[in-house]
Write a structure and sequence with these properties.
The complex is a heterodimer of chains A (171) and B (161).
Chain A (H helix, E strand, L loop, with lengths): L11 E4 L5 E7 L4 H17 L3 E7 L9 H12 L4 H10 L8 H8 L4 H9 L1 H16 L7 E4 L2 E2 L6 H6 L5
Parallel strand pairs in A: 2-3
Antiparallel strand pairs in A: 1-3, 2-4, 4-5
Helix pairs in contact in A: 2-3, 2-5
Chain B lengths: L15 E5 L2 E4 L7 E6 L6 H18 L3 E7 L3 H11 L5 E3 L6 H5 L3 E2 L4 E2 L1 E6 L5 E7 L8 H16 L1
Parallel strand pairs in B: 3-4, 4-5
Antiparallel strand pairs in B: 1-2, 3-8, 6-7, 8-9
The chains are: A alpha+beta (171), B alpha/beta (161).
Chain lengths: 171, 161
């Protein structure tokens, strides 16, 4: 299985753009396995960030996780104001307690322009981006979350930090 | 009865099975539409649950290719109903329940040892012809990429005609 389509500037990314390792996660904000992976990725970026670019693509399972899609919209809307990653982090750090008002509260805590945030959340463009992320995941063979790709190829992640670290070994 | 999974080019055997406690679904009634038949071992099992959740979310992508997904296992109609309601599934699950596994056998995807369907996918065209089939190991969720590729290939052939 390989990543389709490859990464573009439209993807949410953090780390070193010139890194030799590019790690892509297909994730769902309300999936507990993704919540488990979240601190592992933070640690990986801290320890290996010099040679790592991390990309997050949305794969919300809306019927199983009712807050997953609104969360994805909130993160992408925050991204319009340069705060994708702070919103992403805040959502995962409050994953156990997400409710209808959570995202507006997070937006306020991040000092976003609330009017603009509200407009962006409701815009078709962000919904289309999330749908496109989901479709790219299906095409790449994602069958659940989180699914990781390292340099375009499926990564055998088993829930441990070691399995992520192993992917960053020079070939 | 087929010993091995029915392959591309074969006519999809017709059947009629319960899809809810008071409704039945006949494959031939879906002529004019493409059908994705997803045989799976059991409601509630972790891999099957993930697979059905994925197809649930992928329905929009399938519908862009005039295709509807249908799940089939040997679970009863009442078991399917509870599973559908619990997981918010919005596509039919058929009960290959009596005689047990008869339709799975017709398609060559019955596991005699376990007494359940194997994990297998069929993409059937508007005329009822199998255009793609795939047998996945029981423990592995085959995803939906193969289905989408098969549907796209069918679109391309259509355009060339």
């Amino acid at each position: 299985m390989s990543l389709k389509p490859p990464i573009t500037h439209n993807d949410q990314q953090t780390g070193n753009p010139d890194a030799s390792f590019v790690l892509v996660e297909y994730g769902d904000y309300q999936c507990e396995h993704c919540g488990h992976a979240y601190p592992l990725i933070k640690r990986l970026l801290k320890e290996k960030g010099k040679d790592l670019l991390f990309v997050f693509r949305n794969f919300p399972l809306q019927e199983s996780h009712p807050a997953a899609y609104p969360a994805a919209l909130a993160a992408e809307a925050a991204g319009r104001q340069g705060k994708f990653w702070p919103m992403h982090d805040m959502i995962y750090e409050h994953q156990d307690n997400l409710h209808g008002n959570s995202f507006m509260q997070f937006a306020e805590a991040l000092k976003l322009d609330i009017e603009r945030f509200r407009e962006d959340v409701e815009s078709d463009a962000l919904g289309l981006k999330i749908d496109a992320d989901f479709e790219s995941g299906v095409r790449s063979g994602v069958n659940g979350t989180p699914t990781f790709f390292i340099n375009g190829e499926l990564l055998a992640y088993d829930g441990t930090y070691a399995s992520l670290l192993a992917a960053l070994q020079p070939v | 009865m087929a010993d091995t999974i029915l392959a591309k080019g074969a006519q999809a055997p017709d059947f009629e099975l319960s899809c809810t406690p008071d409704q039945r679904l006949r494959l031939h009634d879906l002529k004019g539409k493409r059908v994705i038949l997803a045989f799976y071992p059991a409601d509630w099992s972790p891999v099957c649950s993930d697979q059905m959740a994925l197809y649930n979310e992928s329905r929009k992508l399938f519908q862009q290719h005039n295709a509807e997904v249908i799940g089939i296992s040997v679970d009863s109609k009442w078991c399917h109903l509870a599973f559908e309601q619990d997981r918010h599934l919005h596509f039919p699950l058929l009960a290959d329940f009596e005689p047990k596994g008869a339709i799975s056998r017709l398609y060559g995807v019955y596991n005699e040892q376990e007494g359940q369907s194997k994990r297998a996918l069929f993409v059937i065209d508007e005329e009822g012809l199998i255009r793609w089939s795939y047998l996945s190991p029981d423990g592995i969720n085959p995803g939906a990429d193969g289905i989408l590729e098969a549907l796209e290939e069918m679109d391309n052939v259509h355009e060339e005609k």
